[in-house]
Amino acid sequence: MALADDLIREIDGRREDLIALTQDLLRIPTLNPPGENYRDICDYLQKRLSRSGFDIELIRAHGTPGDSDKYPRWNIVARRDGDRPGECVHFNSHIDVVDVGHGWTKDPFGGELVDGKIYGRGACDMKGGLAASIVAAEAFLAVCPDFAGAIEISGTADEESGGYGGVAYLAGKGYFSPDRVQHVIIPEPLNKDRICLGHRGVWWAELETFGEIAHGSMPFLGDCAVRHMGAVIDEMEQSLFPALAQKRTEMPVVPEGAKQSTLNINSIHGGQSEGDADFTGLPSPCVPDSCRMVIDRRFLLEENIDDVQAEVLEVLKTVEGRRDKFRYDLRELHRVLPTMTEKDAPVVRTVAKAIAETMGREAEYVVSPGTYDQKHIDRIGKLKNCIAYGPGILDLAHKPDEYVGVDDMLDSAKVMGRSLIELLARPCESSLNKGGSHAFA
Asked: Residue 127 carries which DSSP code?
């Protein structure tokens, strides 16, 4: 149909603009932690989207984890209303990026374009997706100014550290309530022909074992908390890890290894605190009276959060029965229940159709091994019609020399644009097609 053809030509004609936009976003180093330059990137997006007729709100998430006068948690929500009532399509992207790390051969904040790839921290996760959604929306507005409903584009804080200063805060304020927004697309890098329906659950906890301090030359006069923790880890190796490996899910989780339950020992520390980097002395000889371990348990839709906790408590109970003076404290840090949007949900069907039309193949349905901001849209916003779809290769996220392909961004922008046609453009299409047909190519 003519409208879809016009849209594709419009997006192809914006290739250089898409490249420049992505490079500009990458050159704003929005590192989290601690949460740098959030206001700078929001100001940049405000200028860009205001020119396209969007009404802008800049929203600081006061009092959320990490928010401070030095590192304020700023978010942007841009909205463009159509000429008549209809549904709202919301594109949500996080603006923060993780630490650079080591091993880069490109400037992490240079936005260098090499052989059709744009390099930089956050290129695929997920500033390339943000740029693609903006170009898709602007191209749609250019070819269909007479549309129904509304388009929203948000850039939100802190997804990499839980999303509490971003989507969770906005959802609590009603920005993702079903009476305001009906369809949400999160342009995370899941590959351009995949629709991500949701994610596994997560339970983070900190376990501390206790002992008694004594002179290191006479450990029999103390009680070593590290040895107690070693016994816990040994019991996990003997009983818990084998049990988790037997738990399998019907969720289409990728990669294959994530189709089972998993537990990661995220960190462990016992005894004296490490000295400053410039300290060259030796530690004092002490029996450690405390050892702390953070665990990261990922669980499946088929599992119950109470059972997840009970399995860890059973390990501790077993160790307690075997060791004298075994004392511990278990503290929950974070929990997110699994979520998975149904395949017949409107946004899923719409994006799947757009993928087939754009790329000539059927969409693949996946579930993410880790959580992303869909958890807050579902749990707090009470909006189920939400997916992740965007350009980029998931395996490149958080890696050195992270990049996003320009052609992948263009294809994803076309999928997003076609989705807008399907959901919002029927009055526009009917004005072009006097016969009243509503078929879209």
From this structure: I
Distance separating alpha carbons of residues 220 and 357, to the nearest angstrom: 72
Q: What are the tokens at 285? A: 């000889």
pLDDT per position as a tens digit, 291-328: 999 999 999 999 999 999 999 999 999 999 999 999 99
Question: Does any domain span residue 437?
Answer: no
Which tens digit of pLDDT belongs to each residue from 38-88? 999 999 999 999 999 999 999 999 999 999 999 999 999 999 999 999 999
Helix (H, G, I), strand (E, B) or coil at 6: helix
Main-chain dihedrals φ then ψ at residue 248, nearest 5 degrees: -125, 155
- For 328-360, give the DSSP string: EEEEEEEEE--EE--TTSHHHHHHHHHHHHHHS
Distance CA 427, CA 165 (A): 38
Are 89 and 36 in the same domain? yes
In this structure, is residue 62 part of a structural domain?
yes
Domain that holds residue 224: 201-274+282-336
As to burial, measured by CB atoms within 10 angstroms (0-12 exposed, 13-18 middle, 19+ buried), residue 158 is: buried
Neighbours of 226 (CB within 10 A): 18
User: Count of residues for the chain?
Assistant: 441
What's the rounded Cα separation, in Å, for the pair 271 and 441? 65
Note whether 9 and 153 are same-domain residues.
Answer: yes
Supply the pTM of this predicted model.
0.89
194 & 93 share domain: yes
Q: What is the C-alpha separation between 233 and 163, in angstroms, rounded?
A: 30
Whether residue 102 sits in one domain with residue 227: no
Together in a domain, 92 and 39? yes
Contacts of 376 (CB under 8 A, 6+ apart): 163, 167, 168, 171, 176
